[in-house]
Specification:
The structure holds two protein chains of two kinds. Chain A is mostly helical. A two-stranded antiparallel sheet of chain A has the order 1-2. Chain A has 15 helices and two strands. Chain A has two domains: 346 residues, no CATH class; 38 residues. Chain B is elongated and about 85 Å long. The longest helix of chain B is centred in the first third of the chain and has 14 residues. Chain A: It holds the Pfam family NADHdh. Chain A: It is found in: Membrane. Chain A: Keywords: Membrane, Transmembrane, Transmembrane helix.
């Protein structure tokens, strides 16, 4: 039975219980993720990180949460009170909701029922995730606007511009997956990766998705919205106490959600590593959950690794990268993938497919060579330009006679 | 012993930093794959020894000449070296030292000679540990220890009185006030010619 059929038979109490479990797992993962991130980044900087609260500092995230909850809850006078309160709720709800369609396991025995650890299976599951992610942007933009302050407004605008532009690239990178799996349902996409993970056969898509998911979640090196030197705290500058905690929670749940989606779409979801398929039967199928979270945590580690390694991008570079590199590249890639797909479906000869692939590779090399050449020319031109007068208005340099007159009256 | 007291910072400190200060000869931006090597740097660092010192549990010795809390020293017979001249207070750029001198009574001396420091306060909320007071002191009465744990929860507790600053009474000393060593002047004390207390000065501490 497929996951969709299994889930369709769920009685109400199982659905409710699954919802609670997903919520609890997300919250616990967030708490542990905060601790894990701080420990890992610390090691990358030759520090130890939080190690005081509980064994290895494991309770650090929990204690931080309690501290946040006990803080004074401020609402600025200039803020729009209702929107100010609603914004973090929208943000955090959207993040949790995208988890509903993620298949966490294959067929398992759940209190005597045969089911799969997936809340619901929509035929357009991935589109649903994208839609919910864009609802989450409302949380950011409303928080920035309702704070009634300049920096949050600028931060909110930046974040929303960033999330929206990277969502385009993200959506485009998923198209190739849809074309290959022939479905937008998450569980069917996982099943379609039985033989080959899409991270392998659709490698460019995977890379584009991986980059855009970092941009989506406002994480380093794309955490421009939180550029402390420019914008204080970004859209959540005016937030404190539990409302801030909600944004914090939303950020981390979002990271886990995009990692889970990446796992589902590109790394074979809850399936075991190739060659370890027998482990999927362990614990009555529950071992697939372990595989799933192992992959999610791998992505999370990469998030932390990026943060520990790369400096923050400049805003214009970041936007240029998104619109001028990621989107065109994924468009071209979709063109190639769909052509190949149509060719193989219509029974073209192997020679035709091979020659098409060869042509694509050839065109790629020619285009990149030309681009490198023109880039070099531009750089050389820029050097010549630099040595001449600056191209921005500068105050006139007074000649020495005028200067003397000015000084002596 | 001396090796143990050397601060650990030399391990990854200036010497190592200087080693890597090779002149930069290539101003070209690195290639993409060269830039990716940065990821290896952070990954490799994860498995290196951390620099963190688990402070309250593990205390590393300071540098030998670290500027810590002050100490008012004593002569070998237990008399205080401080003569209440206030030069330290005048030298202090942060106005952290307050001194009130008073006359010694013959036979009940606190310090050799005419005057002693009756009130001696250092305000550690103001002190910047520059050491100018130590340079100013004409009798070597004021020196600095390596003690750096100077935090407290009220302002009052951080104004150290004379009792807090005085060095301990060691074996062979007599707690002042007491007479000077027989047949000596303050000049003998300053030249270090008084090796220890004389029985005529009072009950000698012996532990």
């Amino acid at each position: 039975m497929t996951n969709a059929e299994l889930i369709a038979q769920d009685p109400g109490w199982i659905i409710a219980l699954k919802g609670v479990i997903i919520f609890a797992v997300c919250v616990v993962l967030t708490i542990m993720a905060v601790w894990g991130e701080r420990r890992i980044v610390a090691r990358m900087q030759m520090r130890l990180g939080p190690n005081r609260v509980g064994k290895f500092g494991l309770l650090q995230g929990l204690v931080d949460g309690v501290k946040l909850a006990l803080k004074e809850d401020l609402i600025p006078k200039a803020a729009d009170r209702i929107v100010f309160v609603i914004a973090p709720i929208i943000s955090v709800t959207a993040c949790f909701m995208s988890f509903a369609v993620i298949p966490l396991s294959g067929e398992v025995n759940f209190f005597g029922h045969k089911t799969a650890m997936q809340l619901t299976d929509l035929p357009v599951g991935v589109l649903y995730v994208l839609a919910i992610a864009s609802v989450g942007v409302y949380g950011i933009v409303l928080a920035g606007w309702s704070s009634g302050s300049t920096y949050p407004l600028l931060g909110g605008l930046r974040s929303s511009a960033q999330v929206i532009s990277y969502e385009v690239a993200m959506g485009l990178s998923l198209v190739a997956v849809f074309i290959y799996s022939g479905s937008m349902s998450t569980s069917e996409i996982v099943e379609a990766q039985n033989q080959w993970w899409y991270a392998v056969i659709l490698f460019p898509s995977f890379v584009i998705y991986a980059i855009s998911m970092v941009g989506e979640t406002n994480r380093a090196p794309f955490d421009l919205a939180e550029a402390e030197g420019e914008l204080v705290g970004g859209f959540h500058t005016e937030y404190s106490s539990l409302k801030f905690a909600l944004f914090f929670l939303a950020e981390y749940v979002n990271i886990i959600a995009v990692s889970a989606l990446a796992t589902t779409l590109f790394l074979g979801g809850y399936h075991a590593l190739p060659g370890l398929g027998f482990t999927e039967q362990w614990l009555g199928g529950w071992f697939t959950v372990v595989w799933f979270f192992a992959k999610v945590l791998l992505f999370f580690f990469i998030f932390v690794w990026l943060r520990g390694t790369l400096p923050r991008l400049r805003y214009d570079q970041f936007m240029q990268f998104g619109w001028k590199v990621l989107i065109p590249v994924s468009l071209a890639w979709i063109l190639v993938v769909s052509t190949l797909r149509v060719m193989s479906q219509q029974g073209s000869s192997r020679f035709a497919i091979m020659s098409f692939t060869f042509a694509v590779v050839l065109i790629y090399f020619i285009v990149t060579t030309f681009m490198e050449k023109s880039k070099k020319q531009l750089q050389e031109a820029a050097i010549v330009k630099d040595s001449a007068a600056p191209n921005f208005p500068v105050p006139e340099i007074p000649n020495s006679k005028d200067r003397a007159e000015q000084l002596n009256g | 012993m001396a090796d143990e007291l050397m601060p650990r910072s030399n391990e990854n400190g200036l010497e190592k930093a200087n080693e890597s200060k090779a002149p930069i000869t290539n101003n070209e931006p690195a290639t993409f794959f060269k830039q990716l090597l940065g990821f290896w740097v952070t990954f490799r660092t994860m498995f290196q020894k951390v620099n963190t010192v688990q402070y309250p549990e593990v205390k590393e010795p300071t540098a030998p000449r670290f500027h810590g809390r002050h100490q008012l020293n004593r002569h070998p017979d237990g008399l205080e070296k401080c003569i209440g001249c206030e030069l330290c207070a005048w030298a202090c750029p942060a106005d952290a030292i307050y001194v009130e001198g008073a006359d010694n009574k013959p036979g009940e001396q606190f310090s050799p000679g005419e005057r002693y420091g009756k009130v001696y306060q250092i305000n550690y909320l103001r002190c910047i540990f520059c050491g100018l007071c130590i340079e100013a002191c004409p009798t070597r009465a004021l020196t600095m220890t390596n003690e750096y744990e100077l935090a407290d929860n009220t302002r009052g507790k951080l104004i150290f009185e004379k009792e807090d600053l005085l060095g301990p009474l060691r074996a062979g000393m007599v707690p002042p006030p007491h007479p000077m060593y027989p047949n000596t002047t303050d000049a003998n004390y300053y030249r270090g010619e008084v090796p220890n207390a004389h029985p005529s000065q009072g009950v000698i501490k012996n532990d």
